[in-house]
Each structure stands twice: as structure tokens, then as C-alpha cells.
Amino acid sequence: MYKFSSKQKSFFRTQLLNWSEAFPRALPWVGEKDPYLIWLSEIILQQTRVQQGKPYFEKFKRKYPTVKDLANTPEDDLMKSWEGLGYYSRARNLHFSAKLIANERNGVFPTRYEDIRALKGVGDYTAAAIASFAFDLPYAVVDGNVYRVLSRFFGITDPIDVNEHKKQFASLAQDLLADAPPAKYNQAIMDFGAVQCTPKSPSCAACPLQKNCQALQKNMVQDLPIKSKKIVKKTRYFNYLVLNIGADVLISKREQRDIWRDLYEFTLLETDSMKTQGELISLASWKALFASTSPEINRVSKPFKQQLTHQTIIAQFWEISLDESSFSKIIGYIRINRENLSNFAFPKLFDWYLQDNSLYLDL
Ligand code: SF4
């Protein structure tokens, strides 16, 4: 357990609450008391920037004003509403938990921390946020913002991605909450990390904590917080075959445990590098798909790159026209009219391709 003087902790708490009173954030979920809407906002904001999440929160609030509305929506509709936000497991977990609350709790959101924490997709941070914002229960939030603010102000150099230290940070955060009003205190520290003590350019010159900030005094602001591990990112190459049969195209649903589960896509051949046309048609997976026929590739898009947290996806779209007899040999796909593509949820880079399909490379 980290030991800091009560004077230092009290200074931190008081200055933080004063700062929050002086600079309230005007966001649609700030001050919200409905646990369902708080839950919705917190799940949307996991791994998502506020400005990106805001229109989604407003859309979800409008389309699914109660947990029962969310529970009753078909999964494909929900995925379509979530389209573009990424990390689709969040939408699946929301749906699962909404159905549980609607069916087993008659639509009444749990009021105890333990029951909130037990919902699928809700971790310690989200449970503390919902419990404190909706019910003023004394559970301190600990997320990336909180790690950063605490490690800088108190000058903690322990890596924040080591379990033992995570526990110490959580216990310090809980200690700091003390007898402060939970909702206000949690909102204050989250906002302070998001607005004042930001990762790259914290406003130290105008910071009410600067007098006692250890990182500032030791010239370590840019070094804290410390992480022990570097995330290894891998690059994947997706060759999407846009198989056209007249006005129709073939799509399928991604059902494997991988990125973009439950979203739709064109016919995918994943490779270990970018492929030329000659290399593509020599692939065993190409031959397995088309058997003895070898359809002509009409055109290929420029490569589209989508950066995910742990992966970089580079996708090229190969447009191919099939006749009915070649099509009949391809199984496991859904045939739809191209005009209906917008009814299905696709990964974000499909939008880029569909909106930018004037850009083609020479074959
Ligand atoms: S002085 Fe700078 S580093 Fe310290 S808490 Fe304030 S903004 Fe963060």
C-alpha cells in the first residue's frame, strides 16, 4: 500500500473537487442518474474517444431509451447501430446483459456494486462508474486517466501494467475517495485526466495541483505513468474478393473468434503479405474457392489501412464478375443486391472502399 501524508491526499482531493466545480464538462452523460444510460455511455466510451462516442450515445439513447428496448432489438440491428465504433464484443455484451436485465430482473437495473460488476462486459472501472454516478456508492474509478493523474501527482514510478501495482493504485484511489461525494469525485478525476493532465500535453502551467505535483517537481511529467510492456502489433493482409453476379454480390458473416465478429464482409482470402494478381490466383485458397474455373479480375482497389489496437489491417478489394454457373459452385455465402449493402454492418474500411471505389490500380 502506498503511503502518502494525509495533508498531501487532502490537498489532492480538495483541489480536484474545486477544479471540477470551476470547469464542469458539458457532455450528454455527465450528471446522468439513470444507471442504464450511464452503463450505455461507459460501454460506448471504452476504447473510444469522447468526440467519437458522443453521437453514438445520442443515437442509442434515442433508439433504445430503456434497457427493454435494447434487449428487444434484433442482434443484426444492434450491430448496424454500433457500426464504425469498433470492438464489437462490447455490443454483444451489452445485448446479452440487457436481455438478462429485461428477462430476469423485469427491466430493473441492479443497484448493488457486486451485481453491476457481474454483468457481462462490466469490469471494475465500469462498475465503479455506474455505482457511483447512479447511486452515489463509494467506489473509486481507476482507468488510464486515473493511473496517469495519480502516478504524476504522487510521483509513482511503478509500472501500471503489473498486477501487484494495479492493486496498489486501486487502493490509493479508494483511499483518496475517502468521504468525498463519490459521483462528484469520480467525475472530477476522470475529467481532470481527460482535460488538464492529458497524456501528451498536460496544462501544468495552469494546474491547481502543480504546487505539490511530484512529476512536475522532478521533471518527470512526460515519463509517467510507466508501462513495463510494449504492445506488439501485427500486420494482417486481407484480400477481399468482391464477387459480383449481375447486380448482386456475395457476403458472409464473420463468426470465428477474431476481430469484427458478427460483422459482414466480402469473400476473404487472408495472406501473409500484399499480393499481386498473379500471386493471388496461384493461392491454394483461390483454387479451392473457384475449383477448375478461373474468373477474371476486373479491377483492384488501392490498399486500405485500418489501425486497430493490436493489429494493422491492410485490405485490398478485388472486383470479380461471376456467371451463374461459377456462382453455383461457391457455397456458404449470402447473395444480396448491392443496393442493400447498407442494411448490413461492415467493418469501417468497407465504407472507405465503397465511398472511394473510383480509385483503382492498374492490373
Ligand atoms: S502539474 Fe501537470 S503533471 Fe502535475 S497534475 Fe498538474 S497537469 Fe498533471
Could you describe the 3D structure shown?
With 363 residues, the protein is an alpha+beta fold. It has 2 domains: 218 residues, Endonuclease III, domain 1 (Orthogonal Bundle), CATH 1.10.340; 128 residues, Alpha-Beta Complex (Nucleoside Triphosphate Pyrophosphohydrolase). It contains 16 helices and 9 strands. The termini are far apart. Bound molecules: iron/sulfur cluster (SF4). The site of iron/sulfur cluster (SF4) has 14 residues, from helix 9 and helix 12. Iron/sulfur cluster binds next to helix 9 and helix 12.
Mean pLDDT: 92
CATH architecture of the largest domain: Orthogonal Bundle
How many separate domains? 2
What is the number of strand segments? Answer: 9
Query: Any idea of the CATH class of the largest domain?
Result: Mainly Alpha
Q: Supply Rg.
A: 25 Å
CATH superfamily of the largest domain: Hypothetical protein, domain 2
> Which regions are unreliable across 5 or more consecutive residues at pLDDT < 50?
none
Q: State the helix count.
A: 16
Determine the CATH topology of the largest domain: Endonuclease III, domain 1
User: Can you summarize the main beta sheet?
Assistant: 9 strands, mixed
At a glance:
By secondary structure, this protein is an alpha+beta fold.
